[in-house]
Amino acid sequence: MIDRAELREALIQAGVDGWLLYAFRGMNPVAVRVLQLTGMNTRRLFVLLPREGEPVAVAHKIELQAMENFPGRVMPYARWSELHEILRSLVGGRKVAMEISPEDAVPYLDRIPYGVVELLRRAGADVVPSGALVSRFAASWSQSEADDHRAAAEILADVARRNLEQAVRTTDRLSETALQARVMAELQAGGLVFDEPPIVAFGPNAAKPHYLPQAGSDATLQRGQVVLLDLWAGRSLTTVFADQTWIGFSGTEVPQRVREVWTTVRGARDAAIDIIRRASQSGRAIMGYEADRAARSVIEKAGYGEAFVHRTGHSIDRDLHGSEPHLDDYETHDDRVLVPGVAFSVEPGIYLAGEFGMRSEVNVFMGPSGPEVTPRQPQVELITS
Questions:
Q1: What's the distance, CA 123 to chain centroid?
Q2: Single pTM value for the model
Q3: % of the chain at pLDDT higher than 70
Q4: In this structure, are residues 246 and 383 in contact, taking their beta carbons and an 8 Å threshold?
Q5: Kind of pairing between the strands at 126-129 and 95-98
Q6: What is the DSSP letter of 123?
Q7: Cα separations (Å) of 292 from 67, 122, 135, 211?
């Protein structure tokens, strides 16, 4: 459970009376992590972490076993009328933070069903977003998770470099799925696991940001094509993954347009990292949307603004696309602060339909001494024949 003194300070800063966590069938990963829930959760569970007083759990009578070691008061219910009455007594007249996002502005934070919010407001609660609390207590990395990520990041980078170097120099008919299978085998040999196969895209397919090759209909690598490899993995399925994108070109003479796009994407990536570093060095709080703007301005100035069709980066916690701040002023306006302990990808891209696409992705952990970029040696130049 969260340190009570630290939580109280955060609740005061947030101007709320408590943090009300809601869990039902795993739909709110924030509650699962903060409460360290295990076992069955087939009935509604509410846990109030108040600014003053002891924590209170409102749990169904058939699922009280999970609450046996709860460090506070447990209020059991069975009938819906009992639940409503308990909630009125618990949150009536209080301002409570929950995982909501007005107008679904940040979907990764918007975890509470509309009906639950409606129920609580009818019970007299003032329900407000819990974004700052989520970043501080639910999404920040532990030391072991940071260590797992660093190790995975170096393995990913090594696998990506070696496979791209081999791919762009090959003279046989290499297919996208063949390269994909090779990468997966090497990740597993390196002791890593993943939940989905990596993205491998040749030539025009690289212009499709979330392209996934299918055996029998995938492309075969030709000379003079861009090769995009997006891969993610971790030491286990319950720790923090690393997530990277690398780019190769199957030729020795790189066309000017290909080189220009690569230079622009790399520059946008570095611009986002630079503004985050400068803010950290000056002690200034920086929000996710600011880093997105920094990257996007580079691409727009180069004339490719319309070809950058996604946010600059997503948060990374135990979910690869997690609940903490994103680098986004495009798909959403993410004004959450990049506080110590959170992490995210930095992956601007340019996608030219029918030609090729490029994305350069690294990860950033807001560590105790400032932003830490992984892998230690990000891609600087195109990997060519």
A1: 34
A2: 0.92
A3: 99
A4: yes
A5: parallel
A6: T
A7: 42, 38, 18, 23
